[in-house]
Specification:
Helix content is 34%, strand content 22%. It has 259 residues and is α/β, with parallel strands linked by helices. It starts with 9 loop residues before the first strand and ends with a strand.
Length: 259
Amino acid sequence: MQTVLFHSTIFGPIHSRRLGVSLGVNLTPDDGKICTFDCLYCEAGFNAQGPGTTGFPPRERVARLLESRLRNMSEAGEPLDVITFSGNGEPTLHPDFPGVIDDTLRLRDKYYPQAKVSVLSNSTRLDHPEVVEALRRVDNDILKLDSAITPTLRAIDRPTSPAFTAERVIPQLAAVGHGCIIQTMFLRGEHDGVKIDNTTPAEVDALIEAYRIIKPREVMIYSIDRKTPAEHLVKVEREELEGIAARITAATGIKVQVA
């Protein structure tokens, strides 16, 4: 079974194809996975591997480890473009998520004031006002929408809540504000005998309408780049992604980044 990707709270820096030189922050366990999605393509594996034993790292420990790493990098003259919240699950599930964001912004300003702070979120916690307010404070609030058609969204992302639908999340994304970035994974294939393809004209048209409603400052589109826990998924090649990006921009005027 494919298992968790990150075995520490602070990891990297790594070179992100979307964000540049990125220092990662994993707010979920370092020996298990806690997420409100169970995506077919998740690099950290399926939720069935369990939550592990270490739990959410305490806010104070996250700040201490992050400051140590930033101080060492700064003293060594190492470059840094972004501090990115990612890891082995959904970062906004951390019970002190707003406080962790406050600590991170303070430490960023102290050691790397030119760096951005990014959060990669699956959009499932947008019904929590304190989470939304914390997301608004970061530089790159990157929120997921893999399909604007509920059966496809649920087939790809497999949300743990039966109430999570496209009809529910799109208005929530729109309410976040124009500063957010929407991230969409394009793929095709099948899982458990169910065909999956969010690249069809109907799927792209539905996403375009959703982007019009949400009005993000940018859309990021990408496809599979590493091994996935579901074995029968197919990467969408860059040329096709660029064609989809052109359609989105022509229809909405929104900037699209292809990764």
